[in-house]
């Protein structure tokens, strides 16, 4: 053992260490006198085993149980935040938002346990524990029943569980059921928020009697929690909301409230006598990585167009003509002396000159011919200069605008072609021929290539896919989408039930309508209380709901008839939800044993084993060794479980 944690009515709690796993655990040693109670030990083992099977984040985990040196014990997870009782005794109170969070967590744990047939029977602040982060857990699940049934030595009229938080049915001596946990929990929340309990009087008996008359009084100061607490505090247990309904409603209230402040839980401080001080743990923090430095990116816009036509190249349409202005080189003709006369047949050195085409009589004819050519060329060039112009740039212009620009520049609109383009909007010019700024004769036709817009895309079939995957696929295909939802018995929630345009070729940006499944239609739970087990099971099966059955004795409900159900009638649940039915076994009948000749101690043990209560006849010898001389009812008589047997001794 490491340290003492606390002690209460049922035993002492120590902080221990699990040597095999090295973790802290809480060890609860129950009172030593309980080990002599065979009925308690049997019930304790059964209930502890059941509690260990519960696995819920808001139920204290039980690791082990047994007996050591005459004391029954439990080993469970250690929670260092103290109990709700400690929190309230320190003067703190829960805010509305904090209470809604606690209600949702505890009700969720109760719904989990109730669905498996387990009842706590002793919900109170000291059985609600916090961990260091303020998360709440339910403790002592299961052993409350074992402890209550060990109370035969207490005065007549002792109530199962803690009287301060007992339900009306517990106050009347009836068996506690799931609804009793809900009533007790409502009392706990009222006290946690307001600091006061309703119906509290000078005596315990008067307090319990007051609870059996009126529904729980809830002040309006509790705001949105008030209607929920009123539904939990009905005198009639059949009118109270189930734990699952309470958890659902508490969740809705939480979402409508601001986030609660963290609960300032206690911190367990080891005592000076602790034999194993906490181990110091050093937390290593890795150096944070430096953020990457963004590099400058230069974006160069592209001037090319995506044109889907085999007759075009990256530079424009094939066959675009570029007309250059004509030039002429004139070779000087005449004598070297510049006289214009016939050239000498000899060079300056007296050597004979070479005879050429323009030598002799041909010279004048050649000169005349050159003059005619020069005059004609000059006239042509002058006319060309007057009748030519640069082709306008109509690329990226709307077709009508391009036609107007061509006409205004003195040219004519030529042939038209249409192609798909991802970059040029529909109806605008992709390219022209001849190319922009080419020098052309006035009146020359300029051909245009017009964009049809992006090419059509095929709508993919996304039926049966998850909504997110369908959206991604449509977006990557340059399609838009809209969503509506509908229930479906065959398509999983979140998957696409149907769509429009599947397999069709449509323009990019077309909206595809998706219908997404919300899953099966919620089932409305019928009222099964009072029905036979077979009928109730048949009704649930018809709704595709599961069923589990818990047997319980009842003095008022016939055997095989449903006493209660885990989900209230009228609640809506998902298909496949398991509903727990509590089915009557009829009255719990036992046979009175023969006590004649037994000692008083032996008679007491025999009656307790049979589930009966011993009452000593007036004037009888109360010594444990005194011998039984008479009993009533007589041996062999069948009576209700818990009945009294009057014993006379001498």
Write up this protein:
The structure is a single chain. This protein is of the alpha+beta class and 650 residues long. Among the domains are: 38-43 and 80-256, Transferase(Phosphotransferase) domain 1 (Transferase(Phosphotransferase), domain 1, Orthogonal Bundle), CATH 1.10.510; 385-452, 2-Layer Sandwich (Trypsin Inhibitor V, Chain A); 457-517, Trypsin Inhibitor V, Chain A (2-Layer Sandwich), CATH 3.30.10; 523-584, 2-Layer Sandwich (Trypsin Inhibitor V, Chain A), CATH 3.30.10.20; 589-649, Trypsin Inhibitor V, Chain A, CATH 3.30.10.20. It has 14 helices and 29 strands. It has a 5-stranded antiparallel beta sheet with strand order 1-2-3-5-4, covered by helices on one side. It has a 3-stranded mixed beta sheet with strand order 11-14-12. Strands 16-19-17 form a 3-stranded mixed beta sheet, covered by helices on one side. Helix 3 packs antiparallel against helix 6 and helix 3 (96-115) packs antiparallel against helix 9 (243-256). The radius of gyration is 50 Å and the shape is elongated. The two termini are 49 Å apart.
């Amino acid at each position: 053992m490491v340290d003492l944690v606390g002690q209460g009515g049922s035993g002492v709690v120590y902080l221990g260490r699990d040597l095999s796993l090295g973790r802290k655990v809480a060890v609860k040693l129950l009172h030593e006198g309980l080990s002599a109670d065979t009925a308690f030990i049997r019930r304790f083992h059964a209930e502890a085993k059941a509690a260990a099977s519960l696995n819920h984040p808001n139920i204290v985990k039980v690791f082990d149980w047994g007996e050591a040196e005459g004391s029954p014990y439990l080993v469970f997870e250690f929670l260092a935040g103290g109990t709700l009782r400690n929190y309230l005794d320190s003067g703190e109170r829960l805010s509305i938002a904090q209470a809604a969070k606690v209600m949702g967590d505890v009700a969720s744990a109760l719904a989990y346990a109730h669905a498996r047939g387990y009842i706590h029977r002793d919900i109170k602040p000291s059985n609600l524990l916090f961990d260091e982060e303020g998360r709440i857990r339910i403790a002592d699940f299961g052993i409350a029943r074992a402890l209550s049934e060990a109370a035969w030595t207490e005065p007549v009229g002792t109530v199962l569980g803690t009287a301060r938080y007992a339900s009306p049915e517990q106050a009347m001596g009836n068996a506690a059921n799931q609804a009793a946990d809900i009533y007790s929990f409502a009392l706990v929340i009222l006290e946690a928020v307001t600091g006061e309990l309703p119906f509290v009087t000078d005596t315990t008996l008067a307090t319990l009697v007051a609870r059996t008359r009126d529904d729980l009084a809830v002040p309006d100061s509790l705001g949105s929690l008030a209607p929920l607490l009123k539904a939990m505090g009905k005198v009639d247990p059949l009118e109270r909301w189930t734990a699952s309904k309470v958890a659902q409603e508490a969740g809705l209230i939480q979402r409508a409230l601001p986030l609660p402040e963290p609960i300032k839980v206690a911190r367990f401080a080891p005592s000076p006598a602790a034999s194993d001080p906490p181990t110091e743990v050093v937390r290593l923090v890795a150096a944070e990585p430096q953020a990457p430095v963004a590099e400058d990116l230069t974006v160069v816009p592209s001037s090319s167009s995506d044109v889907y036509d085999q007759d075009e190249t990256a530079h424009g349409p094939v066959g675009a003509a570029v007309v250059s202005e004509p030039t002429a080189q004139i070779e000087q003709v005449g004598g070297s002396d510049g006289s214009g006369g016939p050239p000498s047949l000899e060079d300056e050195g007296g050597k004979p000159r070479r005879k050429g085409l323009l030598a002799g009589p041909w010279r004048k004819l050649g000169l005349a011919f050159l003059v005619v050519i020069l005059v004609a060329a000059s006239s042509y060039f002058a006319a060309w200069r007057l009748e030519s112009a640069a082709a306008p740039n109509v690329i990226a212009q709307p077709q009508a605008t391009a036609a107007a620009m061509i006409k205004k520049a003195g040219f004519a609109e030529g042939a038209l072609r249409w192609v798909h383009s991802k970059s040029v909007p529909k109806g605008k010019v992709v390219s022209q021929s001849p190319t922009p700024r080419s020098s052309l004769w006035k009146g020359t036709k300029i051909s245009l290539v017009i964009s049809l817009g992006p090419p059509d895309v095929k709508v993919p079939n996304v039926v049966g896919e998850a909504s997110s995957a369908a959206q991604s696929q449509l977006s990557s295909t340059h399609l838009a989408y809209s969503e509506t939802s509908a229930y479906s018995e065959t398509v999983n929630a979140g998957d696409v039930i149907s769509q429009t345009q599947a397999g069709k070729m449509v323009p990019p940006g077309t909206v595809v309508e998706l219908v997404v499944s919300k899953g099966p239609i919620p089932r409305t739970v019928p009222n099964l209380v009072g029905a036979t087990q077979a009928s109730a099971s048949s009704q649930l099966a018809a709704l595709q709901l599961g069923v589990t059955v818990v047997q319980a004795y009842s003095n008022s409900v016939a055997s095989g008839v449903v006493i209660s159900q885990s989900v209230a009638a009228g609640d809506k649940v998902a298909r496949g939800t398991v509903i727990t039915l509590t089915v009557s076994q009829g009255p719990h009948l036992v046979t009175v044993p023969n006590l004649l000749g037994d000692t008083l101690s032996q008679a007491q043990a025999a009656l307790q084993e049979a589930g009966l209560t011993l009452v000593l006849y007036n004037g009888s010898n109360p010594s444990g060794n005194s011998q039984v001389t008479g009993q009533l009812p007589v041996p062999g008589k069948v009576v209700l479980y818990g009945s009294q047997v009057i014993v006379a001794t001498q």
